[in-house]
Backbone:
């Protein structure tokens, strides 16, 4: 299964913020949207990603000063990305190896979407269930 299959089942667009947005504003966006990360976009291009984990780690080191930082100061620059042709297995490996939960998807250098570890796990579960159902039909002589 390819990442583009996951993107077809998600709402269009991604939640993004400007690099100048204060981290306190980013926290509001994360909380209001119920999401774990935002893309940091400038002039229509992806320049970074900022997650809840980034905020919590900074709070533990810098305390309330974190809230006055900008997204650009705290974001992960040049995040690892996938394409719509990336397989779900490849996406899972990238996230696992890199210890992150959100993978921006670029198509021809342009932002095409964002998949989370939850998205890819659900896709794998759905794929496995389909295989089980197909095998049950086959074993029962339905094919």
Residues:
């Amino acid at each position: 299964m390819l990442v583009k299959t996951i993107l077809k089942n998600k709402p269009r667009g991604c939640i993004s913020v400007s690099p100048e947005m204060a981290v306190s504003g980013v926290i509001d966006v994360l909380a209001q949207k119920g999401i774990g990360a935002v893309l940091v976009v400038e002039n229509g291009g992806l320049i970074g990603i900022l997650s809840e984990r980034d905020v919590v780690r900074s709070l533990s080191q810098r305390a309330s000063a974190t809230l006055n930082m900008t997204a650009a100061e705290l974001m992960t620059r040049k995040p690892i990305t996938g394409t719509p042709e990336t397989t779900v297995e490849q996406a899972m490996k990238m996230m696992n190896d890199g210890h992150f939960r959100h993978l921006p998807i670029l198509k021809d250098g342009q932002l095409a979407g964002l998949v989370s570890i939850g998205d890819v796990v659900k896709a794998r579960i759905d794929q496995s269930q389909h295989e089980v159902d197909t095998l049950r039909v086959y074993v029962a002589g339905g094919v």
